[in-house]
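Quick question, first post here. What does this chain look like in 3D?
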Amino acid sequence: MQNVPVVKQPSVGILPTGDELRTPERYEDVQRGEGIPESNGPMLAAAVAGASAIPLLLGIASDDPETLRERISKAADADILITIGGASMGEADLVKTILEEFGFEQDFWRVRIRPGSPFGFGRLPRGDSYQAVFSLPGNPTSAFVTFELFVRPFLLAMGGHKKIFRRSLRCEAAEPLKGPGELSHFLRVRLDSSTVPPKAYITGPQGSGLVSTLADADGLAVISENQTEIAEGGSVDVILLADTPGAESYAKSDFATK
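> Answer (accepted):
Ran it through. Tokens below.
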């Protein structure tokens, strides 16, 4: 009889925050301009499951101290807590304040990327152990990018996986790709397989609240913080979102890095 290593699947509490968020049964409010759809919870639940972890949707927490306390307490048995929203400078949110009431130990609260600068990480004491806490921005694309860059590798490592990072592909910029210069920029792109190397095209406007250009993306083109532009025809590294239809074949190609 052979022994087989077994690793517990991490459980992940997902906590969207904000008075403005509306669930599907309240989409009439959105149509009247009185709220925005709560899309991050379902999106991240699918992403967590895709990283071999167990998503636990905790429901929306309004910008109310008592509600936030109740939701954070509800997540006590989860291995990891993801909060969404309330991390940007100047927002009238209480997430960090309430976390600190629970003994939150902050490691960092901002990163030098776009989209996704207001991203934080720390730990909450839970009995004799700690719960990892990831604070994601509220805009959907920012939440997605920070999950891909930081949370997904953490979950895979915690679950015992050896390969925890997405593969990258060296592509040709089909058009000028511009970055802010002072931050690393991650642009949503689609790939054209008819050329060698593949060409990368921007999927459309890159606002962090736009979900459509994210849905059309095969990968994230990386513009480093010391670059302001990659000219048309220049080389660009693209992080493959390999579980999307357009990128899956590229992840197995000779162009993909390990």
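The helical segments are 27-31, 40-50, 65-74, 95-101, 140-158, 212-215, 245-248.
The two ends are 34 Å apart (CA to CA).
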